[in-house]
């Protein structure tokens, strides 16, 4: 499929207005689909940047459709440190006559990129764009995990039409369902009703309060390592670091914490798409929000450049140290630790016979803390949660 029909090239005036004085700056060292250019070949690309200007389903956030070019302008002056990583900026998805037309275009572009094993980095637009991103994975035929950095669950009210605050309920209820797990990182209690928190537990989804995560940002690493799709709401960050949000909060993650988490996402060989949404340049101050998001994109690419094949499989099982923890009056819990990266996994492959459906979810990312908990004769929450899902 010729996906160029769904894309508008990057405006030449944007490139000319960016301060590019060194050949290693991103704007000078990646392939950019510019006005007047032939659409670039994709066969050797590793990462594709895609802007989206769709904002019609944004709740009280008019202007977020302009976010893509603002983030792009902040990204281009940063330096490219990644020899051997081929990056292309494909411009912006054409905004359709109706929102569903934009969804269709984004879906088709992403489908082609994933077939080429290219990781899309989506910038701009409203958070409901996570829905067409999720729909792409129907064609893969495998269950997927979504990790969202967001102060809300975006579940919405009963029977609420899809928008930037309700798209997750549409993903959960979508048929056929390919969602295995949803993880929310950084929800803020005062933005979430108790029924939604109870529903997350009932569905065996993960949700981690902002205060808990900020005490130890490293706890997000195994949560993000379990994701296929990472989706980030700009409102997850505090006002001092992310003024480019209309309904900004004084509380949230710092820009540094955002960079840590996006680097974790880049390191995760399972992550095949990431999106940055709800940023609104109309409310930004000195482009601070755009610069923070551009740096998060930078750290995602940096993490990507260090990816290692440490996902457990039958072929590489000798790369792991295997620990079997025997609990009294309970079945054994099997842990794996990669001998080089020292990242930990829980092995549930022997617990389920439906290998075709669950093969990508037999190995659950965890931390050494989960192993330590098991050694105290306690059952780790992550083991129990995913045991119930698979069994």
Can you give a write-up of this model?
This protein has helices spanning 12-17, 26-29, 67-75, 99-115, 130-136, 167-173, 194-202, 210-215, 220-225, 255-267, 288-305, 355-358, 368-375, 381-390; strands at residues 7-8, 31-32, 47-52, 87-93, 119-123, 144-149, 179-187, 206-209, 229-233, 273-277, 320-325, 333-338, 344-347, 363-366. Strand 11 (320-325) and strand 12 form a beta hairpin. The chain contains 14 helices and 14 strands. Helices cover 32% and strands 18% of the residues. It has 391 residues and is of the alpha/beta class. Strands 1, 2, 3, 4, 5, 6, 7, 8, 9 and 10 form a ten-stranded mixed sheet that branches. Helix 3 crosses helix 11, helix 5 (130-136) runs parallel beside helix 6 (167-173) and helix 10 (255-267) packs parallel to helix 11.
User: Strand count, sense and closure of the main sheet?
Assistant: 10 strands, mixed
Q: In terms of per-residue confidence, which ranges show pLDDT below 50 for 5 or more consecutive residues?
A: none
Structural class: alpha/beta
Beta-strand percentage range: 15-25%
Shape, per Cα inertia axes = globular
What is the string of SSEs from the N terminus onward?
EHHEEHEHEHEHEHEHHEHEHEEEHEHH
User: What is the CA–CA distance across the termini?
Assistant: 40 Å
Strand elements, count: 14
Q: How would you state the average pLDDT, rounded?
A: 93
Percentage of residues in helical conformation: 25-40%
Tally of alpha and pi helices: 14
Q: Determine Rg (CA atoms, Å).
A: 21 Å
